[in-house]
Amino acid sequence: MSDINQVIVDREVPCKLRDGVILYANIYRPQANGNYPVLLTRLPYNKNLPNFSHRWIDPIRTAMEGYIVIIQDVRGRFASEGEFEPFVQEVKDGYDTVEWAASLPYSNGKVGMFGLSYYAFTQLYAMVEQPPALKAIFPAMTGNIFKDAFEENGILSLAAAETWMLDSLAPDYLKRKLSPKDFAKAMEELANDLNQIEKWHTFTPIKELPAVMKHPMLQDIYQKYIQQEYNIKAIEYRDVKRYSDLMDIPAYHLAGWYDNFLNQTLLNYEQMQAYSQNQKLIIGPWGHGMTGTDLGERSFGVNSSGDSIDGKDDLTSLHINWFNQWLKEENEVRIDDEDPVKIFVMGINQWRSEKSWPLQRATSTNFYFHSDGEANLKSGSLNTTLPGDEQKDQFIHDPTSPVPTNGGGTLFYNGRNAGPRDQRKIEEREDVVVYTSEELEQEVEVTGTAKVILWASTDALDTDFTAKLIDVFPDGTAYNLADGIIRAKYRSGKREQESLNGDIIRYEIDLCATSNVFLPGHSIRVEIASSDFPRYDVNPNTGKTTLESEEMRKATQSLFHQKEYPSHVILPIV
């Protein structure tokens, strides 16, 4: 067996940063003499646990392909020194680590970065400082450096935020600050709280979450995190104009139709594509970190998985092929002649290549809401005809009994409650309004970003509206495809609006993106409600939020679909 097929593993290799803090990494490299390109990933979840170090791509196989693979604990996590400050620390630390990796005696001076979620954030933040050795990245299922990871326009991704704090951050954070005896007790309490995390999602006010407050050492990082202080601190790194000339780096973006970061991953691609043509995008029928054939209550076929992408690639080979193009000396002038976008089209369960995202040939088509004033499974309809003089629909939003999350792009504990799920039980609720098309006579493909334009009023000071796009099967099964939410107070973006006073307001609810063929005999459905809990924090309808308040009140919601107020969904039809 040749030396290139023999791999050396160097454990706990130190990297000294500019401020003297030392980070530690495991390095996988070919035994054969020579200089090789580096693939670097940086994570806060423990480089020594295979579920985090080996699950995404195989470092052994990658090293056998002629790469040095470096897996590093970020500052303040596990073996690495320093104090952990989520996200913002990764700018300077990312720069220093990239340049350190390039200087290793067996490196050829070229570095690529890869990884999922927070690991991908470390790529984007390192990119900001433009380390000379960084030549290409592969950010997967991640946020956008101009947006907060778990909050947007006043709405907190509640389950994701609390899960990340209690499950991902708390154990190591407390271990570094407590005595062994106190840490053992804290871990017992954390385990008990994670076993009943659904109960903790219902606690208000959120900032006083008992599962956190019982650990004094955890309170400071939780408060800064939940109050967006880390996000505010990172603002200096988030000036788009400043970045306009910093994004010219080859990047392969990986997304999932049911990933909680789908919107932000697509935004990464679109923003970077505007400045660099060396961008690629792949979107599978996947959830966050979940790339198998089955998700939620559906199966998308053998060749939908990350182990058999279109029967041709797997996640590791996808990475190797990408980095071969940018990091191997013999491929310096290689031109990629493949289409830059690859998407999985649900319904027909097929992969397809595209020349752009969004698809230029998609036609925005309005499907209008109709009903006799009692929109439900029998009377709510959806078609391309403008409404006339129709009665409004009404429902009561009771924040003490919110509409429960049932699938979607969630990030719950251990991946629970993700993906496509039958919505019929949800649609039986009196606070869920449903509009359904006739059964289709021919295929209708929807690929791209969908939006709901909703004309509505409320008797609350502030409230939320949610929307879901549903594929209804001939047997009545109703699988969610895409969804969105808007908070009235932030209906125009981050700038807070005045309290509501009963006026009819136009809301634009972004349903993010999907790709699905509605087959003959199927129907297109839209659900409207005012909560999706605990995926999002429930709006108490008081003008405050459950972050700081326990007070809640019911709200009467009125939905309009008339000539003057033509509520509808905009679908990109291909």
UniProtKB/TrEMBL annotation:
<dbReference type="GO" id="GO:0008239">
    <property type="term" value="F:dipeptidyl-peptidase activity"/>
</dbReference>
<dbReference type="Pfam" id="PF08530">
    <property type="entry name" value="PepX_C"/>
</dbReference>
<feature type="domain" description="Xaa-Pro dipeptidyl-peptidase C-terminal">
    <location>
        <begin position="320"/>
        <end position="570"/>
    </location>
</feature>
<keyword id="KW-0378">Hydrolase</keyword>
<protein>
    <submittedName>
        <fullName>CocE/NonD family hydrolase</fullName>
    </submittedName>
</protein>
<dbReference type="Pfam" id="PF02129">
    <property type="entry name" value="Peptidase_S15"/>
</dbReference>
<dbReference type="InterPro" id="IPR008979">
    <property type="entry name" value="Galactose-bd-like_sf"/>
</dbReference>
<dbReference type="InterPro" id="IPR005674">
    <property type="entry name" value="CocE/Ser_esterase"/>
</dbReference>
<feature type="region of interest" description="Disordered">
    <location>
        <begin position="399"/>
        <end position="422"/>
    </location>
</feature>
<dbReference type="InterPro" id="IPR029058">
    <property type="entry name" value="AB_hydrolase_fold"/>
</dbReference>
<dbReference type="InterPro" id="IPR050585">
    <property type="entry name" value="Xaa-Pro_dipeptidyl-ppase/CocE"/>
</dbReference>
<dbReference type="InterPro" id="IPR000383">
    <property type="entry name" value="Xaa-Pro-like_dom"/>
</dbReference>
<dbReference type="InterPro" id="IPR013736">
    <property type="entry name" value="Xaa-Pro_dipept_C"/>
</dbReference>
